[in-house]
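Session log. Operator J.P. requested a structure for one protein chain; no other inputs attached. Running the standard single-chain path with C-alpha cell output.
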Amino acid sequence: METRIKIDKVEPAGYKAILGLEGFIESTPLTRKHKDLIKIRASQINGCAFCIDMHTKEARKAGETEQRIYALNAWRDTPFFSEEERAILALTEEVTLISNHVKDETYQQAAKVLEKTYLAQVILAIITINAWNRIGITTNLIPA
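Structure written below.
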C-alpha cells in the first residue's frame, strides 16, 4: 500500500483551507478530551487507520486512559463517559453517519448539556475530522 496522491502538494490552497478549519477548532474552548473523543470515534466509524493511529497517540499523550480509548466503540455500554461526553459521542456518530440524519432526540440532548457556542464548536469539530478522514481514506494515508 502506498499513498495515492499528496493533496497538500498537488492542491496546497485547498489543503490549507482545511488546515484553517482545524486551526479554528484548536483555538476554541473545546476541551482536549472532547476533541480527542470526537476525532477517535469518527475515525473508528469511518475506518481511517491513519487518523485512528494519530489521534489515539495524541489522546494518550494528553492523559486519556487506555481503558476509555479501548471502550470508545462501546461507550453506551460502559460507565466511563460523562453525560456531556455521551451527548458528544452520540452527535459524533450521527453526524458521521449523516445519511441516517441527526435525530431530534440526539440533537436536543446535546443542546441540553452543552452551551450553544460549545455545541456549534462540537459540530464543526465533527465535520472537520470527517473531512480529514475522507482525505486519509481516499488518498490511502498509511499510519507510521
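Operator note: The chain has a mean pLDDT of 97.
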